[in-house]
Amino acid sequence: MALMNGAQYIESLRKLNTKVYLFGEEVKDWVDHPMIRPSIECLAMTYELAHDPQYSDLMTATSNLTGKTVNRFAHLHQSTGDLVKKVKMQRLLGQKTASCFQRCVGMDAFNAVYSTTFEIDKKYGTEYHERFKKYVEYVQENDLTVDGAMTDPKGDRGLAPSQQADPDLFLRIVEKREDGIIVTGAKVHQTGSINSHEHLIMPTIAMTEADKDYAVSFAIQSDVPGLFMIYGRQSCDTRKMEENADVDLGNKKFGGQEALVVFDNVFIPNDRIFLCQEYDFAGMLVERFAGYHRQSYGGCKVGVGDVIIGAAALAADYNGAQKASHIKDKLIEMTHLNETLYCCGIACSAEGYPTQAGNYQIDLLLANVCKQNVTRFPYEIVRLAEDIAGGLMVTMPSQKDFKSDLEVGQSGKTIGEWCNKFFAAAPGVSTENRMRILRFLENICLGSSAVGYRTESLHGAGSPQAQRIMIARQGNINQKKELAKVIAGIKE
């Protein structure tokens, strides 16, 4: 089939019998639920822009498997140019949505599983790689969104999967059959899981032989028996359910979402299994996926950062403070931090190299440096944005107050008139427009979109210490010592 557009993607979700639960109840019409729909619209943008000639070079690619044009989110990277275009595409989508567009995890999982299965087959004579190639062809042909799922609940972080009091705290194989396996457990923090047609499951940590039942990778449809999702809360999320919700949302059309994905004795057929107890490859798969996903943050968070910088500058204009030297300096600092993140994303892409399977891997050291910076810089960017915006960002009355025609006081003015009177600022700027930009900043700094920009920047693709471990491993301190010895004239 041809590449889907945004509307076709949304309609394709209606054909699924995905089980979704929210506030303790099943949501039958989840595609149109006001809390969920903005995240669907955000993901739909990854389909819509693929049809725009202005962006087709970034949004599409030629499949190495079929030779056909595919959405880049379903592509296996064939060069450093592909890796660079990935980052540029992610920045573009961040600029268009100011949200997490949820499709990156699947793309990163494709490339990690593709190269890892090749090397598993080489060692053990398995057929995982050919299975996975057929699966990717299926995804590309049908232009599907696939949720890459790695993070387990983990339970006691000091214990291995096989040592947990509850063995289900890491997703595991509970039965091996001639035609497939039965799995049980869960994946947590799953970005875009409800909006996905399929899920590509991976182990979450390196494992030993004692943990071999937890070393599993497979693909599964979103609506198979035994699979269900419990929607995660976000700050200020119920604002989306208010009557005529608009200005108070900050970002009315777009948003992100996460969910707990539960596997209650789910059957996985053999042709969709890509790792089954080969525990010695779990670490490789985790490391490669993490590298790709840490690269991703040098694109998506930068695009959102572009919008935040623009919003902060508008807030300064509307407040009449745009000429103040400290405002200009803060905007410069925000730009400096944002572009530094982009530099890291481009650098780890440009320094990529081919795997044994033929697809391209990013430079792992630089990808981890990229993500380490992402754990810090967005927090400083939003701090500066809050500084520029001022306290009204979080203390202004509601949209209903600004629209209210209830007369109060002794002057005969309505609540709306009082609000518009006292919250006016720079001449020529409507109070509503000032309110809109401040609500946007509230949403991205503190509200529902802060999930994708702030906390995800800290914990997504591994928390800060995970990157520091990889930086220590990849940093090659011994080589640097030898360089110093040569220059210093040291002979041992």
What keyword list fits this structure?
492 residues; alpha+beta; six-stranded mixed sheet; 17 helices; 47% helix; globular
Record the SSE blueprint.
Blueprint: H1 6-14, E1 20-22, E2 25-26, H2 37-48, H3 56-59, E3 60-62, E4 69-71, H4 80-97, H5 104-124, H6 128-142, E5 146-149, E6 172-177, E7 180-191, E8 198-201, E9 216-221, E10 227-231, E11 258-269, E12 273-276, H7 282-319, H8 325-350, E13 353-354, E14 360-361, H9 364-374, H10 377-389, H11 392-395, H12 399-403, H13 415-422, H14 431-445, H15 450-459, H16 464-474, H17 477-488
Parallel strand pairs: 1-10, 5-8
Antiparallel strand pairs: 1-2, 3-4, 6-7, 7-11, 8-9, 9-12, 10-11, 13-14
Task: Describe this entry's structure for a reader.
α5 packs antiparallel against α7. The strands form 4 sheets. The chain has a 6-stranded mixed sheet, with no helix packed on it. The chain has a 4-stranded mixed sheet with strand order 5-8-9-12. A two-stranded antiparallel ribbon has the order 3-4. The chain is built from 17 helices and 14 strands. The protein is globular and about 85 Å long. By secondary structure, it is of the alpha+beta class. A hairpin with a 2-residue loop joins β6 and β7. This is 4-hydroxybutyryl-CoA dehydratase.
